[in-house]
Amino acid sequence: EFGLTDYRLVINHRKLLEAQIRKAGIPIEKKADALRALDKFDKIGHEGVLKEAAGYGIEHGPFLAFLTALGLSPDATAGSFDSRLYLRQIAGHLTGDAEAEAALKVLEHIFARAAELGFDERLVIDPTLARGLDYYTGTIFEAKAHVEGALLSFAGGGRYDDLIGLYGGMAQGAVGFSFGVERLISLLQEQKASIPGIAPRPVLVAPVGPDQGAAAERIATALRNAGVAARLGVGATAPGKHLQYAEATHLDWVIFVGEDEVKAGVYPLRQLSTRNEQKLTVDALVAHLSQQLPR
What is the pTM of this model? Predict the structure, then answer.
């Protein structure tokens, strides 16, 4: 949408970092300080974060062991890691740590899903990514783009399981992220990218059944690649629930993705304002909605 083509999605997992902190012998009360120091690695380098950690009262030996376990030698640079190799090495290093093993499964799932959707080449693990705020509890991520040889972050976020309950809400896991507006504008100006206008309301791609999420994501991706705004239905697997959501959010088009539809290769497309429905292949869906929806 923004015309940024040279970008990366950088991820890590807080539970992996916490397991490495325990393994290195850093006291639990120094966890947040250790992660704040690590998060500055790409700005101040190996010696810089060692000094930063010392300033927080963290002993040199355990923090150096922490950096070494992360594969961060004095000549290492952030983002210079083979993601799959790193995951295999960490799995061997943290065998028997239940939280670390669960976190590794999550990251492997993310890479597998990214491969299914065709953007795994843009997804990389950066062991220096810590997202300094202490409320993150799971996967953390940033979006970065190359500008004049530097990899600059323009968005970031992650999963937090305790934050909503902490502020009086019901206990509920959530994922949130935000854009750095000034950084994003600078990137667009630097790359002379066009700024899009107001987008039309998206098409709802609705998985029907518990195992159709990947198929629905592939259809949503095909629509987005063709310039058609698409929203993936989450939290519901019944057609009626998807329709209720579409009506409540004023979405006019819904594509249903069920097991039978995936096998046949044709998908019901319903327009709520007219109650018309037709069954189309993915290519036909893209062509039809490209004509029906304004750009």
Answer: 0.72
